Amino acid sequence: MADSFDRAPGAGRVRGKPSNPGLVEASSPRAPEFGSEDAKASLFSHREPLRQPRSSPPPAEDTRRQSKTSNPVQNNSSTPALKAQRSESLVLTSSLSANAPEFYPSDYAYSEPVYEDWGDEYYASASLADLVQGILSHLNSSPGSFEVDIDDITATLNEWVTTEDTLKELVELIYMQSTSIPNFSYTGARLCNYLSQHLIISPSNGSFRHLLLQRCHSEFEKKNQAVCGNEETQRKFHSYVLFLGEIYLNLEVKSANGPPKRADILLVALKDLLTTLFSNPVDGNLTCAVKLLKLTGSVLEDTWKEMKQPHMDEIMQKIKGVVLDATCSRDVRQMLLKLVELRSSNWGRVHAAAAASEATPYNDPNYFMNEPTFYTEDGTPFTAADPDYSEKYQEILDREEYFPDYEENGNEPLFPDTDEDEMDPEIEEAFEKFCIESERKWKQ
User: Fold this and answer.
1) Whole-angstrom distance between the N-terminal and C-terminal Cα of the chain?
2) For a FRET experiment, which of 92, 186, 422, 435 has its CA 20 to 30 Å from that of 72?
3) Residue 427: how many CA atoms within 13 Å on its side-chain side?
4) Which pLDDT does position 420 carry in this prediction?
5) The domain spanning residue 335 has which CATH number?
6) Which regions are flagged for Basic and acidic residues bias (predicted)?
7) CA-CA-CA-CA dihedral for 277, 280, 281, 286, to nearest 10
């Protein structure tokens, strides 16, 4: 028993040992001992050979033949040496050279590239339409940069627009962009106003503003056919109407005396366009009229009132007639009613508060802001705006013994019981000390 434990477990065993002892005896008369060099070689002699990497060059023909006839044990045991020999043989027998010239097919004809100096002719080939289209696209994508870029844009256009034909082309390009893209009508109107004042060219046949108004007038003459046309014709006409409204709000006409004013001719045109839209009360025309009145209604009414013309009242009457009689859709009828409500609220505008001497609860929304607050016996606060306590509030105000120096609407005198020119000496001295102390603390 003691002899069986003298060696370590597994000593003398060989991995992959065949089951037939006869084969072992035939191949080797004696099994090598564990730890010897022969044992190490026999341990890995029955493994599968490693697959050659894909990137390695194929072995030479004679090497392949030699590997078939040689012992697989010897090939596997000397694989790194064979790899080195194969690489060296390939380098020595290769005919490739790093300094070889570039390869060209036999039918390839190489020619040196020819570079031509175009000079100023290249820039002259660009058209005014391309330039203006790039400018308008930039303003359309970045309308907030109008104030920053308008001076550079005008300087560039002054270099290009030097004839009457180019000026007409510029007007047409801006007009088409402003009427084809609805969101560009406001920016287009601002651009027209600026260019009308800063373009250098002024031909005898008309300036930029004159040509722009002529282009708008040519479209204005087609209004009767446009409101009755097909859907595409009406869409273009509606875009033109809204652009003309933006032109009226933004285009400034210099006057000899006083600040710039709006073009009166556009005021007449907008009134006629509204009448034409309401004459054919379909949904598209009514929607366009509502958009135009929301855009320009307050300005139109103020101007007509100054001219003592009741045009806005007439338009409201037409709207009420359309709501009652026309066969428009429910949504459009609701839009018209909202427009009438907007006009009744002075187009959503809030007038400034009246002067303190003329303030009343009806013309000054802040009338009760400076009024004092009183309290009932149970501690309930009430002001002049509470209708349940209006009589009690007025009764308290009438008691002069409580408020001898109180003036209505919060206009109390700064120094009660004193004249503004004759201030009490003690109060004046205290006031001067207060000012000196405040100035000293501020300097610190």
Assistant:
1) 106
2) 92
3) 10
4) 45
5) 1.25.40.180
6) 37-51
7) -20
- Same domain assignment for residues 295 and 342: yes
Cα separations (Å) of 237 from 116, 213, 220, 281, 384?
49, 16, 9, 15, 55
Does a structural domain hold residue 440?
yes
**In this structure, what token pair is assigned to residue 13?**
């065993």
Question: 135-156 pLDDT, tens per residue?
Answer: 999 999 999 999 999 999 999 9
Lowest-pLDDT range of 96-100, 199-203, 276-280, 435-439: 435-439
- Cα distances (angstroms) measured from residue 393 to each of 178, 276, 371, 376: 60, 56, 11, 10
DSSP state of 253: B
Q: Is residue 169 part of a domain?
A: no
- d(CA 221, CA 240) in angstroms, rounded, equals 12
Do 242 and 342 lie in one domain? The reply is yes
Same domain? For 227 and 283 the reply is yes
CA dist 148 and 194 (Å) reads 13
pLDDT (0 to 100) of residue 236:
94
249 and 337 share a domain?
yes
In a domain, 90, yes or no: no
Looking at the structure, do residues 314 and 245 belong to the same domain, yes or no?
yes
List own/partner pairs for 133-142 with CB under 8 A and 24 or more apart.
133/173, 133/177, 136/173, 136/174, 136/177, 136/184, 136/188, 139/184, 139/187, 139/191, 140/177, 140/181, 140/183, 140/184, 140/187
Q: How many CB atoms lie within 10 A of CB 250?
A: 18
Element (H, E) at 240: helix 231-250
Domain housing 422: 413-444
Q: What percent of the chain has pLDDT over 90?
A: 39
